[in-house]
Amino acid sequence: MNFVICDDDPDSVRDIEEMVLLYFKIRHLQPPLIHTFSSAQKMLRSSCVYDIAFLDVVLPGISGLIASRELKKRNRRIMIFIITGFSDTYLDESFEEGVYRYLTKPVSMRRLHTGLRSALIRLSSPCKSLLVRTTTETRRISTEDILIVHTSLRTTGVVTTTDSLICPYPFSFWKQTLPEECFMETHKGYLVNLTHIRSFDQDRIQMDDLKTIAYLSKRNYSEFKKRFLLFLENE
Question: pLDDT digit string (tens) for 134-183?
Fold first, then answer.
């Protein structure tokens, strides 16, 4: 596996690298190849495709958040950890960019190891693909790309990262098929992919494509909030 650490603070680079290597050492795992850079420009000039990235937000020239977009073009499954000295200044923007974890300096070894463990589990799990029959064709879609599933009258709509589909399969099919660790029924007739949530309030959930909205019932609010926060920490 290829990891990258991009931070203009050499002490921070050293600390993160040591914590990553320690994680693999205590679990007797083959350590990754770790690439380190002091600027995003230098990192992006490399042709290497990374599996996990640790990026400082404030970098000379290109910011870590902008650099994360370019890394995702090379590998859309990359797990990006944002490292910053600001507790919540870049939190909203980071989630908008779809980062995996937001860690503040000084970085907690426990939080880094917890996030690293869940990232490695996700990377090691193959994407599940489904052959789905729509009103006009049969499509292959990845469960990872599904934002929400919602039922209306006798049809079921599936909104993905690229488009929307109308399928004849009953809502019960999706509840049984989609992985429980990532999907939750937030309202009657709504299944939401926790991976793609951008924000939520007491009755609505906005997905990270910025246009798809799912509904959240009052009776599900507490359980949803608990599950979503646990998902962010311990997925």
Answer: 878 898 888 888 999 999 777 899 999 889 999 888 898 898 888 887 89
Running DSSP on this structure, what letter comes out for residue 134?
-
Q: What are phi and psi of 62, to 5 degrees?
A: -80, 130
User: What pLDDT was estimated at residue 127?
Assistant: 62
Compute CA 96 distance to the chain's CA centroid, rounded to the nearest angstrom. Answer: 11
Instruction: Give the distance, in angstroms, between the CA of residue 134 and the centroid of all CA atoms in the same chain.
Output: 27
pTM of the model: 0.60
- Say how many C-beta atoms besides its own lie within 10 A of residue 183's C-beta: 20
Which residue, chain included where needed, has tokens 């850079």? 37
Q: 64 with 56: CB under 8 angstroms?
A: yes
Winning range, highest mean pLDDT, from 40-54, 94-108, 119-133: 40-54
Beta strands in the chain (DSSP E): 2-6, 33-37, 52-56, 79-84, 101-104, 129-133, 138-142, 146-152, 155-160, 164-167, 183-187, 190-193, 197-200, 204-207, 213-215
Predicted confidence (pLDDT) per residue in 41-84, tens digit: 999 999 999 999 999 999 999 999 999 999 998 998 899 999 98
In a 3-state reduction of DSSP, which class is residue 167?
Answer: strand
**Contact, 117 vs 52, CB < 8 A?**
no
182/109 Cα distance (integer angstroms)? 25
Question: CB of 54 within 8 A of CB of 81?
Answer: yes
